[in-house]
Amino acid sequence: MKLLLHNRSMLPGVILTIVFAGAAIVSLVWVPYDITILNIADRMKTPSLIHPFGTDQFGRDILSMIMVGARTSIAVALVAVGIGMLAGVPLGLAAAARRGSLPDEIIMRTNDLVFAFPSLLIAVMITAVFGASALNAIIAIGIFNIPVFARLTRGAALTLWSREYIMAARVAGKGPARISVEHILPNVTNLLIVQGTIQFSLGILAEAGLSYVGLGAQPPTASWGRMLADSQTMISLAPHLALFPGLAILLTVLGLNLLGDGLRDLLDPKLRRART
Amino acid sequence: MSLLVVDNLSLSIHGTPILKDVSMKVDPGRILGVIGESGSGKSMTAFSVLHLLPNGADLSGSISLAGQDILSCSEQQLCGIRGRDVGMVFQEPMTALNPLQTIGAQVAETILIHERVPKSEALARAAEALRRAELPEEKFPLSRYPHELSGGQRQRVVIAMAIALRPKLLIADEPTTALDVTTQAQILALLKRLVAEDGMGLMLISHDLAVVADLADDLVIMRSGEIVESGAAQHLFRNMRHPYSRALLEASGHVPERATPARTMPLLRVQNVVREYESHVHGWWRRTNRFRAVDDVSFEIRKGESLGLVGESGCGKSTLTRAILGLEELQGGEIQLDGKPVASDHKANRDVCRRMQVVFQDPYGSFNPRWRVDRLITEPFHLLDDPPRGSVREAAIVDALESVGMTADDSDKYIHEFSGGQRQRIAIARALIIRPELIILDEAVSALDVSVRAQVLDLLADLGDRFGLTYLFISHDLSVVRSITERVLVMKSGRIVEEGPTDRVFDRPQHDYTRQLVAATPVLPADVA
Fold first, then answer.
1. Distance between CA atoms of B409 and A234, rounded to whole angstroms?
2. Is B325 close to A171, i.e. CB distance below 8 A?
3. What burial class does residue B512 get, using C-beta atoms within 10 Å of its C-beta: 0-12 exposed, 13-18 middle, 19+ buried?
4. How confident is the model over B75-89, as pLDDT tens digits?
5. Is-contact B376 B367, C-beta < 8 A?
6. Between 3.40.50.300, 1.20.1250.20, 3.40.50.2000, 3.40.50.150, what CATH number should domain B293-355+437-449+461-521 receive?
7. Which of B292, B318, B302 has its CA nearest to residue B270?
8. Residue B526 pLDDT class (50, 70, 90 cuts)
9. Measured between alpha carbons, how far is residue B170 from residues B46, B88, B133, B202 in Å?
10. Does A105 touch chain B if contact means CB atoms closer than 8 Å?
11. For the whole model, what pTM was predicted?
């Protein structure tokens, strides 16, 4: 805890992350107004005590929509990072364990291939083929997380494979799979957690981007990206319609990046020793 | 007049005392040896002279260099002194050079910082400095990069940087610790020659008494930030008074006692072993280069014997170790333990593997930092078909820890809580836990301080007698091999060039290479202690 306060970027990161995660969780049981009910009489109200963030062109409460939108964003990004880790980490471990072999080459060159395409472009292709939905957005973003984790894991694992304790484990008769799980994985977890938070924030951005062009979550599911898109035509009439979802995206991504930076400093024993 | 006078120097960093009342002096043209084990403050003394100290450092006392008070100098004045009046040579030649700059540019940089001269002149003087460090321009052009040089050659570049401006004082912090013995002898001779030629003062910092004994005019022995003994080297070696210095001297030449019954039964037989590596020098599909790391090696280890394997880095001894452990595939020959092959059908043989274990060099890198000691030392249980569980496992852990002089309480600690010597004991416990017959010690004591090394050697000798262990002792350090082994193999470029009883090989070496090795090994004066 003391370490947490020592690190100046960590604290705002933690607070912002808690605020948005909290909003998403609260929205599961309670929101100020039901966002599926349209109330044309109350449309496009500026922020007031009744509607802290104002209302949109259909009279829906923007605070409630942002809370529900947080749920969509976090769910999409979380599952996408999960896909990336579950597929990428084993691939990276396997490539490192069989360094220089055919499987290693295949895994890493496939990674290069995926990296070679702009991720949003492929996401657009996937949604164009399979239809626009939150699920397809998750899959599209998730696929692009795989090479990120595979490369990170492989790189870190390669340096670990030359350690003497790996040699000791081999002398104890352990095979590459077992060594990867018992010795390599625990020692790359730090890196994975840090990269995970960063990919998480990128996932939120990607989901917002896809929804903005109409390829992400479909109505009536609330999404920050689509709120931005819907408010675009009315930005001169009611700037608050774009302001709040925009701020929500900005602050969440900022918070997660700060958290990731802070975690990296916190989990790196070398940096930790230098500080104390 | 003395060149460097350090008087009553005390240093504390963030309130922790590091040095206490350290006084020493270096005269022009003389070599001061500073000896101490890790944590004795010998490097900190050197860094104090250059005032290169970490934040929070608090110095008191006085340091004067050629009459100038260093402690009252401003940072700007200090920058003028560093490199020009005081040169420094570091331990690790691999990291002391910038890999992206040519050696010429790096040596010339020192000159350009301190003198306003045209670049061409700086380069000419850099070439001169490199020539004095025995890297003549004809063979080693200034445009070479550090990665094109060997460790010894890089250390010469570092020395050339340090002497480029003909400093008054040269500080060498463990300059040869990372080098092979024959290279070490050359570098030490070079330093000695430069001191004589330039009338420089040299402060030679080392943990190795023998290295310093050959060279130093004066000696300072340090322990935990204090000087325990100092004086003229010749006199001091013969009249050590302080118990610590005597213990240090005794530990350097320590020979553990062992019972030596007759050994006749062969345990491990290595026959015509060949290990080749293929490297793709010209892309994937073109010609491949073959490199024979182990070239037609044959030998035997008898039951209960301690066999030494000596060789410099790159001679193939580590590859041979891995081959014996069944971790390398062979291109020819066979390795048998008690008549059974170590590996067959591209796989290591489990019931042979469980009869041997290994202890590695690096006490810091040979343990998974996220495991507790009990899990670490029971890892070899994986080799057993029916590994012990519950109370049997507990008993085995306690037994293994106690037999290496640790306690049962240590089993739930993490490895970072232990010192280097303790870690090496734990590594031995890990090797012992499945009661192997053969233990391979791969430079197992090379990274330890001399006094700790003596204790570990004693422990190994004791365990060997108690459990009837057979040791294969791999090292580049001839004095250690001499103290613990009965027979020795000398390896060079993948081949065994000499083999025989240890005393015979070291006293009357037959092969040229062995002669070179023996001659290069620094020894304490024979009439000492």
1. 71
2. yes
3. exposed
4. 888 888 888 888 888
5. yes
6. 3.40.50.300
7. B302
8. low
9. 10, 6, 14, 5
10. no
11. 0.78
pLDDT 10s digits, A23-65: 888 888 887 777 777 777 777 777 777 777 777 777 788 888 8
A169 close contact with B: CB closer than 8 A = yes
> Mean pLDDT over all residues of chain A?
82
Interface of A with B in 177-206 (CB under 8 A): 182-183, 186-187
Nearest C-alpha neighbor of B268 from the set B308, B311, B324, B320? B324
Give the start-to-end residue ranges of the domains of chain B.
4-97+171-252, 293-355+437-449+461-521, 367-435
State pLDDT tens for residues A200-209: 888 888 888 8
SS3 content of chain B, % helix, strand, coil (to 5): 35, 25, 35
- Measure the CA–CA gap between A139 and A80, rounded to whole angstroms: 7
- The answer to whether the Cβ–Cβ distance between A171 and B382 falls below 8 Å is no
CA distance B323 to B303: 19
Q: What DSSP line would sit under B131-189, residue for residue?
A: HHTT--TTTS-TT--GGGS-HHHHHHHHHHHHHTT--SEEEEESTTTTS-HHHHHHHHH
In this model, does residue A153 exceed pLDDT 90?
Answer: yes
Tell me: the pLDDT tens digits for B333-377?
A: 888 888 888 887 777 788 888 888 999 887 778 888 888 899 988
CA distance B217 to B204: 11
Helix (H, G, I), strand (E, B) or coil at A25: helix
Question: Hey, do B4-97+171-252 and B293-355+437-449+461-521 end up sharing a CATH topology, with the first three levels equal?
Answer: yes
- A74-250: CATH, from 1.10.3720.10, 1.10.10.60, 1.20.1050.90, 3.30.2320.30: 1.10.3720.10
What residues 403-462 of chain B have any CB closer than 8 A to a CB of chain A?
A: 427, 430
Cβ pair A171:B368 closer than 8 A: no
8 Å CB contact of B379 and A163: no
Nearest to B253 by CA among B474, B448, B445, B482: B482
Q: Which CATH superfamily is domain B4-97+171-252 in?
A: P-loop containing nucleotide triphosphate hydrolases (3.40.50.300)
Q: Do B370 and A170 touch (CB under 8 A)?
A: no
Looking at beta carbons, which residues of chain A come within 8 Å of B427? 168
Confidence of residue B287 (pLDDT cuts 50, 70, 90): low
In this prediction the ipTM stands at 0.72
Q: How confident is the model at residue B481 (pLDDT cuts 50, 70, 90)?
A: confident
Structure tokens at B152: 């010894």
Q: Tell me the residue type at A223.
A: S
Query: Residue by residue, what is the 3-state secondary structure of B10-39?
Result: EEEECCEEEEEEEEEEECCCCEEEEECCCC
Structural domain spans, chain A: 74-250
Nearest chain A Cα distance for residue B354, angstroms: 8
